[in-house]
């Protein structure tokens, strides 16, 4: 079973992550690249296409991309562009992203401009969750359905959308169960293993992922993670972090990442979609507007969720490792620190590059934070 | 308050100097411009001292005026800051507020100026009103949160749509209507007056018609204005920003008349090159005079504020959607002025270069401004491909010379001008 678990965790690794996509295409089916977690993947899946999460190269050199990019642009997108220019996404039948921020919006335009014209779709995701924004987003999801139908020459009806939602909801629930196990003092998986599982979900056909994870769950219940430290327990907060080696680095500094606040982690599956309403597009709108990203305006609500997690997961401190040019997160930072402080929760924020870089510097800084947590714990 | 007092003092002295020693070469509209600025600073300072309602970090000047409040665009005032040092010190204030170092100066420094006590704090704060520019959106959000946290300022969040359509305009206008109610609830004495708003829209329509005439006159070769004279920012003299709207329109009428006279009379300006300067300029050095000395005419343009090239600045237009828009819909439509795809923008820049007979582009990439910074490559390549024109990219800030020292700007510009001249033959 451990081998099966390791195999699942390796699905998101660069050498493996196109495997399922290529197999899918061999069956004559289309694969659509998804740039961020605000895109309702269920729509793509309902069309019989594979939503495949785009990652950037994990190599440091992005010199080709930087001839196109703003020096204060999101480093994740720098690396994605480098991969795009290298032809790594040529196999895709299209790309979809949200208007997460200005950089994502412009990035879509470059994708199209560089001749990747098959489908370069941007979906407008409102910045708030109100009845009015849900209605607006529902309409945008309907537009998105139309675009996918046209790209795939298929029809998506409410029934097929409901089916896709059910498959995805099952996956979300399974991941939730895995995360429940992380509440234990000696959890079955480390923080880096948790990220490896969630990112595996993003490149595999969801029903296949669900089947594998469901089979693994009884094993995980009994498993004990091979971690050097079980204390202090840290909650890691970031976006566009998809390399488990980053979390390994944090854990090697002497702590356990027991919970996360990641778009590629907890936010990806925390909410399910099916709400029993008459309109599956509306259900998707509701679910995706509650995504918890700092890009949404409800900063207070996001931090309240974080505080809740720190209680539930017995967290000693919150570590934010933000992409160095993640604007929404950068602007939320003072309030993250302030509101956590008000709750008596120690926190520290460091900027990072998308690829694993400045390792020594990060290790020193993270080590200092962990030392603070240890000192606090021992009085 | 010091910045406002210094600016009032400066403009008063300049006007007295003009009075005492009239310069026949000076255009009468320049005097009006100085007077208008002085009116604006004085009105703001007086309102602040008397505790009158001032709305800032607000989506629209016209809306604020239509509610009986004064609306101050602090970023515009900061563009006129007496000395670069006054602006420079605000960076540290912004850092102390927790702003990241990649903040966009245009929207961060005004908030820092409020924190430093230079400008009055907002009575209500809004977020999400940056049109397509989501960098602006998050700056606004951060400021709103800051004032909510530290001064108890009520905050109203606005969700700005991504696309330009009648439906999006309605969606936005509905939120603006809710905002007026929110302001009425939180700021006693303010009441939205639609009829007054309609009058402001009408003044805006007249203003834009003058801007378009001004734009046409810029096509003259050689450029009849010095770079400083040409640098007047059309949004700086938006009638809804001022209490005396008629005076603003009089300024624009006079400005157009002045330029027409210059054109008719002819100019002895030596014009070796014409460049389109995109985006703001570094305010810690005199770019205008430097380019004048180099024989370069500088046709200033700030992309997000582009009503004067005809870009969707269609106040009062009834043709676009086949109906008359309500004043709030007009505001919403204007807010979408910067919503366009990157290629569309690049094509627009190429069109402008052609219309203005430009020889090159200088793209001043403001640190932290992805809205204007991210499209650079596409703009440069498009203009090169369509017109064979080169683009110089410089990355800097408004007031921080450490990022791009004046000597470096000067030598870079000189080299670029020489290169373009050689290329031009």
What is shown here, in short?
The complex is a heterodimer of chains A (379) and B (425). Chain A has helices spanning 2-9, 19-26, 41-46, 63-66, 75-85, 102-113, 131-152, 158-181, 191-201, 206-222, 244-252, 266-269, 280-289, 299-312, 327-342, 359-377; strands at residues 31-34, 50-53, 95-98, 120-123, 233-238, 256-262, 317-323, 347-352.
Order of helices and strands of chain B: HHEHEHHHEHEHHHHEHEHHEHHEH
* Terminal residue distance of chain A: 42 Å
The low-confidence runs of chain B, each spanning 5 or more residues with pLDDT under 50, are none
Q: Name the largest protein-protein interface in this structure.
A: A-B, 39 and 43 residues
Radius of gyration of chain B: 21 Å
Task: Give the SSE layout.
The complex is a heterodimer of chains A (379) and B (425).
Chain A: H1 2-9, H2 19-26, E1 31-34, H3 41-46, E2 50-53, H4 63-66, H5 75-85, E3 95-98, H6 102-113, E4 120-123, H7 131-152, H8 158-181, H9 191-201, H10 206-222, E5 233-238, H11 244-252, E6 256-262, H12 266-269, H13 280-289, H14 299-312, E7 317-323, H15 327-342, E8 347-352, H16 359-377
Parallel strand pairs in A: 1-2, 1-3, 3-4, 5-6, 5-7, 7-8
Helix pairs in contact in A: 1-10, 7-13, 8-9, 8-10, 9-11, 14-15
Chain B: H1 2-20, H2 28-50, E1 54-55, H3 61-66, E2 70-71, H4 74-79, H5 84-96, H6 105-115, E3 125-127, H7 134-151, E4 155-157, H8 166-186, H9 194-217, H10 227-230, H11 245-265, E5 273-278, H12 287-293, E6 296-301, H13 327-335, H14 342-355, E7 360-366, H15 370-373, H16 376-387, E8 391-396, H17 406-424
Parallel strand pairs in B: 1-2, 3-4, 5-6, 5-7, 7-8
């Amino acid at each position: 079973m451990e081998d099966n678990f390791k195999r699942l965790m390796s699905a998101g690794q660069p050498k493996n992550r196109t495997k399922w996509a290529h197999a899918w295409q061999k069956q004559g089916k289309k694969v659509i690249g998804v740039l961020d977690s605000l895109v309702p993947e269920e729509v793509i899946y309902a069309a019989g296409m594979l939503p495949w999460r785009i990652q950037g190269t994990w190599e440091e050199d992005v010199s080709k991309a930087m001839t196109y990019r703003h020096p204060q642009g999101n480093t994740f997108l720098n690396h994605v562009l480098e991969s795009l220019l290298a032809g790594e996404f040529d196999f895709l039948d299209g790309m979809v992203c949200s208007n997460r921020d200005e950089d994502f919006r412009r990035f879509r335009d470059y994708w199209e401009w560089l001749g990747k014209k098959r489908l370069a779709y941007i979906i407008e995701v409102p910045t708030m969750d109100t009845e009015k924004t849900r209605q607006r987003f529902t309409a945008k999801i309907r537009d998105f359905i139309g675009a996918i139908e046209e790209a795939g020459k298929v029809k998506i009806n409410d029934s097929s959308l409901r089916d896709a939602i059910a498959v995805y909801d099952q996956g979300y629930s399974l991941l939730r169960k895995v995360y429940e196990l992380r509440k234990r003092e000696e959890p079955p998986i480390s923080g880096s293993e948790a990220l490896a599982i969630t990112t595996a979900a993003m490149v595999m056909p969801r029903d296949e992922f669900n089947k594998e994870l469901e089979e693994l769950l009884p094993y995980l219940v009994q498993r004990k993670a091979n971690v050097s430290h079980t204390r202090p327990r840290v909650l890691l907060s970031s976006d566009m972090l998809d390399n488990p080696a980053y979390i390994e680095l944090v854990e090697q500094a002497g702590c356990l990442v027991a919970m996360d606040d990641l778009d590629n982690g907890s936010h990806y599956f925390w909410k399910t979609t099916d709400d029993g309403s008459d309109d599956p597009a509306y259900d998707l709108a509701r679910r995706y507007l509650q995504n918890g990203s700092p890009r949404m305006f409800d900063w207070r609500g996001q931090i309240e969720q974080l505080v809740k997690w720190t209680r539930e997961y017995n967290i000693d401190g919150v570590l934010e490792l933000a992409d160095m040019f993640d604007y929404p997160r950068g602007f939320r930072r003072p309030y993250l620190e302030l509101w956590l402080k008000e709750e008596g929760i120690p926190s520290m924020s460091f900027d990072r590059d998308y690829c694993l870089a400045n390792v020594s510097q990060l290790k020193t800084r993270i080590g200092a934070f962990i030392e603070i947590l240890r000192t606090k714990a021992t009085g | 308050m010091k910045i406002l007092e210094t600016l009032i003092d400066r403009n008063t002295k300049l006007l007295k100097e003009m009075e005492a020693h009239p310069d026949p070469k000076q255009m009468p509209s320049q005097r009006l411009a100085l007077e208008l600025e002085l009116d604006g600073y004085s009105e703001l300072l007086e309102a602040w001292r008397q505790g009158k309602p001032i709305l800032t970090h607000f989506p629209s000047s016209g809306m604020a005026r239509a509610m009986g409040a004064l609306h101050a665009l602090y970023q515009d005032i900061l563009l006129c800051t007496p000395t670069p040092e006054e602006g420079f010190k605000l960076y540290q204030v912004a850092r102390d507020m927790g702003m990241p170092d990649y903040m966009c100066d245009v929207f961060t420094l005004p908030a820092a100026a409020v924190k430093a006590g230079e400008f009055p704090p907002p009575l209500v704060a809004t977020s999400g009103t940056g049109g397509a520019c989501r960098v602006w959106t998050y700056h606004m959000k951060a400021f709103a949160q800051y004032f909510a946290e530290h001064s108890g300022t009520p905050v109203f969040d606005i969700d700005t749509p991504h696309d330009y359509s009648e439906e999006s305009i309605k969606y936005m206008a509905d939120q603006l209507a809710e905002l007026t109610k929110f302001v009425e609830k939180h700021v006693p004495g303010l009441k939205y007056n639609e009829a007054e708003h309609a009058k402001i829209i009408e003044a805006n329509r007249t203003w834009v018609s003058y801007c378009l005439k001004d734009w046409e006159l810029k096509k003259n070769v050689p450029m009849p204005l010095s770079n400083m004279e040409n640098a007047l920012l059309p949004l700086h003299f938006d009638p809804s920003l001022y209490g005396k709207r008629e005076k603003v329109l009089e300024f624009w009428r006079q400005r157009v008349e002045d330029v027409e006279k210059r054109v008719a009379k002819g100019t002895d300006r030596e014009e070796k090159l014409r460049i389109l300067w995109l985006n703001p300029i570094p305010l810690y050095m005199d770019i205008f005079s430097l380019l004048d000395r180099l024989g370069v005419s500088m046709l200033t343009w700030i992309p997000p504020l582009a009503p004067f090239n005809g870009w969707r600045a269609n106040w009062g237009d009834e043709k676009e959607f086949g109906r008359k828009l309500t004043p709030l819909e007009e505001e919403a439509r204007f807010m979408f002025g910067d919503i366009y795809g990157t290629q569309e923008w690049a094509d627009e820049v190429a069109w402008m270069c052609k219309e203005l007979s430009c020889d090159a582009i200088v793209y001043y990439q403001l640190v932290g401004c992805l809205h204007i910074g991210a499209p650079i490559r596409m703009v440069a390549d498009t203009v090169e491909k369509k017109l064979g024109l080169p683009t110089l990219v410089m990355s800097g800030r408004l007031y921080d010379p450490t990022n791009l020292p004046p000597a470096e700007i000067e030598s870079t510009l000189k080299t670029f001008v020489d290169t373009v001249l050689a290329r031009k033959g």
